[in-house]
Amino acid sequence: MNIALIGSGGRENALCKKLKDSKNINRIFCIPGNAGTAKIATNLDINFLDFKLLLKNLKDYEIEMVIVGPEEPLVKGIVNFLEKNRIKVFGPNKYASQLEGSKAFMKSICKKYNIPTANFKVCNNKKDFNNSINKFKLPVVVKADGLAAGKGVVICKTKKRAFEISKQIFQGKFKSSKKVVLEEFLKGEEASYFLIVDKKSFINFGTAQDHKRVYEKEKGPNTGGMGAYSPAPIIDKKLEKKIITRIVKPTLQALKDKKQFYRGFLYVGLMIINKNPYLIEYNVRMGDPECQVILPRLKTDFFKIINYCLKNQLKKLKLIWEKNKCMTIVLCSKGYPGNYKKGGIIKFHRIKENKNLFIFHAGTKLNNENIYSAGGRVLNIVSKGQNFKQIRKKIIKLIKKINWKDGFYRKDIGWRVIDKL
Ligand code: AMP
Ligand code: GLY
């Protein structure tokens, strides 16, 4: 069977590599992919949000199955469209994707089903905001309701700032929505929990801890993620049980009660306070860079998992993981998450990859055999081993050999566990 993967980040390079390891796939296409996926699959440089154009290409290349990496096509209904056109597709449909696509939708489920989360108020306009803001202590969290590419959440220390940010959202700063969600600020430790879900059941898909802030010691603005490691010891068996009974099961039940269902990756973003989980957000996809540290540890054939999921047979699967630990450090363009330069050449002459030390590309482009930077997060250097300190040393040693003058990275990825594990 020919298969297509939608997306162009490090997550998609990791997914692509895992699919390549499966014997049951004929050709892999990456739409649009990056310089890393170009080495192992066929990149198709088309706009995947143009669903009709996408379908034409799927038919031309006899592609029977699609795996969707990022959230935007999911929220825009790619699954409904492809299924209607008899293409198998791994990912949640448009209704279920609202779990990420609308914070108001997600929060209303939390309220109705008693799912632990921060207290909140959805505001449709300035009047709603004025009536609600005094009910929140400072700092208060202001969120755009819809997708905002990770830029729609601001923790505000003053009411004035909360008002300014809300005003920008009401005025349409993010095209996806003009609603504001005000939220109580939760103080605890963040953790992420990953699942693969089908109509009948779900299966844990590993744990990872991301580092969202751009600078070391968790300083500076939020990014898509500057590095990650797996497994993440913060989620033990007891906590996992609470996450499933208090958060995951009631959410899936809420969809069922609407005669809907969930299928695909589900990323549960949590705040852990006094060993209790609070839902911060859902993502309807794998995390990036979490995917880059979870997949290399997976021993079970990934394509088999996808097929079991599409047949609603996940219950029959038991996933097998390597004992090895895994870490990635993201090499970014200077200036990210603000403005940055694109187009610099990256040279890898002195780099030797092996099964425990390798690179996933993110924002890169291949042109005449040369590799150029094409994004904010450009490369993920990944390593596996028994000890996070050793792993990180190997990664940093490799980064120093990459010849690219416009990059920077965090040297403290894994600081919570580096001296313990
Ligand atoms: P979100 O897009 O909702 O995941 O928010 C992005 C980031 O903002 C989260 O990863 C947290 O670091 C932070 N955040 C969001 N909501 C809250 C909250 N209610 N309390 C504290 N931090 C939050
Ligand atoms: N690393 C965070 C995310 O994928 O949303």
State the fourth-level CATH superfamily of the largest domain: ATP-grasp fold, B domain
- CATH architecture descriptor name of the largest domain: 2-Layer Sandwich
What fraction of the residues are assigned to beta strands by DSSP? 25-35%
Compute the number of strand runs.
Answer: 23
Major sheet description: 9 strands, antiparallel
Mean pLDDT: 95
What is Rg?
Answer: 21 Å
User: Helix proportion of residues, in percent?
Assistant: 25-40%
Q: Any idea how many domains?
A: 4
Q: Which structural class is indicated by helix and strand composition?
A: alpha+beta
Oligomeric state of shown chains: single chain
CATH class of the largest domain: Alpha Beta
Shape: globular
- Kindly report the CATH topology of the largest domain: D-amino Acid Aminotransferase, Chain A, domain 1
Distance between the termini: 41 Å
Low-confidence stretches: none
Keywords:
single chain, 29% strand, binds glycine, binds adenosine monophosphate, Rossmann fold, 5-stranded parallel β-sheet, D-amino Acid Aminotransferase, Chain A, domain 1, alpha+beta, 421 residues, 13 helices, 4 domains, Dna Ligase, domain 1, 23 strands
What layout of secondary structure does this protein have?
Layout: E1 2-7, H1 10-20, E2 28-32, H2 35-40, E3 42-43, H3 51-60, E4 63-68, H4 71-75, H5 78-84, E5 88-90, H6 94-101, H7 103-112, E6 120-123, H8 126-132, E7 140-144, E8 153-156, H9 159-170, E9 180-184, E10 189-197, E11 202-210, E12 213-215, E13 219-222, E14 227-230, H10 237-257, E15 264-273, E16 276-283, H11 290-294, H12 302-310, E17 325-333, E18 345-346, E19 357-361, E20 364-367, E21 370-373, E22 377-385, H13 388-401, E23 407-408
Parallel strand pairs: 1-2, 1-4, 2-3, 4-5
Antiparallel strand pairs: 6-9, 7-8, 7-9, 10-11, 10-15, 11-14, 12-13, 14-17, 15-16, 17-22, 17-23, 18-21, 19-22, 20-21
Bound molecules: adenosine monophosphate and glycine.
